[in-house]
Automatic annotation (TrEMBL):
PROSITE patterns: ADH_SHORT. It comes from Culex quinquefasciatus (Southern house mosquito). GO terms for molecular function: oxidoreductase activity, acting on the CH-OH group of donors, NAD or NADP as acceptor. Pfam families: adh_short. InterPro entries: NAD(P)-bd_dom_sf, Sc_DH/Rdtase_CS, SDR_fam. This is 3-oxoacyl-[acyl-carrier-protein] reductase 1. Belongs to the short-chain dehydrogenases/reductases (SDR) family. It comes from the Eukaryota. The gene is 6050473. SUPFAM superfamilies: NAD(P)-binding Rossmann-fold domains.
Length: 247
């Protein structure tokens, strides 16, 4: 990670869970980190809770709902004006809504999942790519995907969520090819965890004492690993499962 010291990382969905863990890991690794979140006060509290003063100064909190394009444009404009641009983007923001596809009156929930998990990821990636290309930066874009972006477990509560993550799997390869066609060496990585112990996990799964789960810090460590690989190495897809998972 030495070559990234002082470089700028943007992390979406930074207020809790995986996003908060990624923010702390990248800041501790010496990067200047911008945590985007709807609940920006949580990112500020995370920053204030860091023990090292130098690390606290490297962490910035910016209010942003990635389901809204105007929020994304404003946030990336802030990064460019205040910090010079983006070197690493981690698309972590995501939502899961228990809204069966065939249930009436569920349009709002379904649209929120797609707007956040798919369109938010695409638009943030677009803005980050433009920033990197303009400055001739060999940057890195990381998508926090999911194992359900590769197979669909028999869990009706997931609803449209697997479809949104299958889209992330496809978008990762599409972006890789577009980055190459644009003549850049910008990397793109998809990280697909199994069940992670966060607020997003449905209550019925959280109550299962026998269900193996990963910790948010496990995913943050994977992000640091992928970003820290040599320029010649691109981790295209990294799948992480807890030991003992059987579905």
């Amino acid at each position: 990670m030495d070559r990234w010291a002082g470089k700028v990382a943007v992390v979406t969905g930074a207020s809790s869970g995986i996003g908060a863990a990624i923010v702390k890991s990248l800041a501790n690794a010496g990067m200047v980190v911008v945590g985007l979140a709807r609940r920006v006060e949580r990112v500020e509290a995370l920053r204030d809770g860091l023990k090292d003063q130098a690390t606290r100064k490297r962490l910035h909190a910016v209010k942003c709902d990635v389901s809204k394009e105007e929020h994304i444009l404003r946030a990336f404009r802030w990064v460019e004006e205040k910090l010079g641009g983006v070197d690493v983007l981690v698309n972590n923001a995501g939502v899961l809504r228990d809204a069966k596809l065939v249930a009436p009156g569920n349009t709002g929930d379904l649209r929120e999942v797609i707007d956040t998990n798919v369109m938010g990821l695409v638009l943030c990636s677009r803005e980050a790519f433009q920033s990197m290309k303009k400055r001739s930066v060999d940057g890195h874009i990381v998508h926090i995907n999911s194992v359900v972006g590769h197979y669909i477990p028999n869990l009706p509560v997931l609803s449209i969520y697997p479809a949104s993550k299958y889209a992330v799997t496809a978008l990762t390869e599409t972006m890789r090819r577009e980055f190459l066609a644009e003549g850049t060496k910008i990397k793109v990585t998809s990280i697909s965890p199994g069940v992670v112990k966060t607020d997003m996990v449905p209550n019925e799964m959280q109550k299962d004492q026998d269900l193996p789960m990963l910790e948010a810090e496990d995913i943050a460590a994977a992000v640091v690993y992928a970003v820290g690989t040599p320029p010649r190495v691109q981790i295209h897809e990294l799948t992480i499962r807890p030991v003992g998972e059987n579905f």
